[in-house]
């Protein structure tokens, strides 16, 4: 039986607006971020999508986003948290290493700075979401996470080199179908902000 996963990036935060690296660190939602969350909630209502279960990262920006979207009870999971960027946390995004056109991620760059590798993040997200979707009665699941973590999960299941770039705006919802322990990417739902 096919199930649906809606994997969402949290709304804009103060660090996003100020172009600060925030992985394991946290900052509050901006007014724009709050509106992005409310708009995402409206998307589910307008499309008559009845969510059966909801989950968020343990980071406040994700749980705040979820609470603005729905009144559905939810569980916070460490497996959905953002990539840990080590000592780069809270610094300017200008300090991120440049990527060449053939590179899609930072690889293991942040490991030497007490952070995580891209594969660590990908494995953590994949394990967590597989476990969620294998649970009984999990037909339409919402999981609120983060840009880097969502990207690494998408990269696990979709060959990004064979398609146009996918926007990962704050508030973006990535829709996947799930069946036989496999995820199929359907679409990225971005609201124009």
From TrEMBL:
<dbReference type="GO" id="GO:0005737">
    <property type="term" value="C:cytoplasm"/>
</dbReference>
<dbReference type="InterPro" id="IPR001345">
    <property type="entry name" value="PG/BPGM_mutase_AS"/>
</dbReference>
<protein>
    <submittedName>
        <fullName>Phosphoglycerate mutase</fullName>
    </submittedName>
</protein>
<dbReference type="InterPro" id="IPR013078">
    <property type="entry name" value="His_Pase_superF_clade-1"/>
</dbReference>
<dbReference type="GO" id="GO:0016791">
    <property type="term" value="F:phosphatase activity"/>
</dbReference>
<dbReference type="InterPro" id="IPR029033">
    <property type="entry name" value="His_PPase_superfam"/>
</dbReference>
<dbReference type="Pfam" id="PF00300">
    <property type="entry name" value="His_Phos_1"/>
</dbReference>
<feature type="binding site">
    <location>
        <position position="61"/>
    </location>
    <ligand>
        <name>substrate</name>
    </ligand>
</feature>
<feature type="binding site">
    <location>
        <begin position="9"/>
        <end position="16"/>
    </location>
    <ligand>
        <name>substrate</name>
    </ligand>
</feature>
<dbReference type="InterPro" id="IPR050275">
    <property type="entry name" value="PGM_Phosphatase"/>
</dbReference>
